[in-house]
Amino acid sequence: MTLECLLLPGENMESDYTRFHAHKGHVNNVTFLDAGRKALSSGMDGFMKLWSVPSWELIREFKGHTKSVNSISFSRNLNIIATGSSDNTIRLWSYPESLPLKVIIGHSNIVSSVCISPDGKLLASGSYDGTVRLWALPDGKEFLVLEGSPDAISYVLFTPDGRKVLGGGIGGDIYVWSSFDGRLEQTLMGHDIALMSMVLTPDRKYLISAGYERKLRIWSLNELKEERSVELDGTGHFPLAVSSNGKTFAVGMDYDIVLYDFDSGKTVSNIPLMVKGVYSMAFSPNGRYLVAATADGRLNMWDLEK
C-alpha cells in the first residue's frame, strides 16, 4: 500500500492530508475502534477491512458478503461487529478475533443500515424492502419487525437510551418506533426529499439529519422536535460526523468537506477534495483526525492539529 501525503489548504485551515487505496469501487463506511488506534472500512467490493491508525497498515480483511458492504456497527459491550450488505444479509463478526459468527437472513432487499443498541442487546437493520427489523444479540434471532414506513429505509439509529429506533429513507421523513413493542410513536416531518444521513451528538441531546434538498435539521432528542436548520451550499451524499467535544460537525459534499460550528451553524472551514463523492466520515475520539471514505476507493485522513 502506498500512502500519498499532501498539504491541502482550506479556506481557513491547513491540514496534513494522507490518502490511499482501500477498496475496489466506492468506500461506503469508515469508523474508529479502540480509542482511535484502529479503524474499520467497508466497500462496494464486499470487504470490510481493519486498519492500524495513523499508519494505515492493513491488519485484517473480513470476507463473507457477496455484494457491497453498506453499513458497519460495533458493540463494545459484546465485542461484536455487525455489517449490512446489498446481498440482503446481515453478518455478525467477533472482535478482535475477527471470526464470522452468524449470517442473518430476513430482509428481501438491500440492507442499507445497521445499528447496535447502546446496551448491546439489540441490532436494528434498515432495508430497501421498507422495513426496519430488530434482532436479539448475540444470537441474532428476529425480535420485531417495525412497520409503518412507506419508504425504502436508508438509515437507522437508536436513541442514546435505547428506548426508540429512528429510521428514514427515500421520502425524507424520520420514523420513531418503540424498541420494546415496535409501535410507531411519531413521524418527524421536515426533509422534502430523501433522508441522506443521521448522527447523534456526543452529549446525547441532539439528532442531526441531512436531506437531499440540501438542508440539515437539528432535532431535540428530549422532545423529538426540530430546533433549527442549516442550509447547505453544495450537493452530495451529505454524510455527517460530529467531533467528540460536540463543538464541530462535518458534512461531506461532492467536492469538499465543510466543517460547521454546532452552536452557530456557521462555516468554520472548508476542506477541498481531489475526487467527487464522499460516502462516510469519522472524527477520531481525540479529535485529532478526520477520515473520509470517497468514491475513488480511497480513505482520506486529515491531521487537524497540524
Task: Give the helices and strands, then pairings.
Elements: E1 4-9, E2 14-21, E3 27-33, E4 38-43, E5 47-52, E6 58-63, E7 69-75, E8 80-85, E9 89-94, E10 100-105, E11 111-116, E12 122-127, E13 132-136, E14 142-146, E15 153-158, E16 164-169, E17 174-178, E18 184-188, E19 195-200, E20 206-211, E21 215-220, E22 225-231, E23 240-242, E24 248-252, E25 256-261, E26 267-272, E27 278-283, E28 289-294, E29 298-303
Antiparallel strand pairs: 1-2, 2-29, 3-4, 4-5, 5-6, 7-8, 8-9, 9-10, 11-12, 12-13, 13-14, 15-16, 16-17, 17-18, 19-20, 20-21, 21-22, 23-24, 24-25, 25-26, 27-28, 28-29
Walk me through what this model shows.
With 306 residues, the chain is mostly beta strands. The protein has a single domain, classed as Methylamine Dehydrogenase, Chain H. 0% of the residues lie in helices and 56% in strands. The protein has no helices and 29 strands. The strands form seven sheets. The protein has a five-stranded antiparallel β-sheet, with no helix packed on it. A four-stranded antiparallel β-sheet has the order 3-4-5-6, with no helix packed on it. Strands 7-8-9-10 form a four-stranded antiparallel β-sheet, with no helix packed on it. The two termini are 24 Å apart. The relative contact order is 0.14. The model is unreliable at 4-15 (pLDDT under 50).
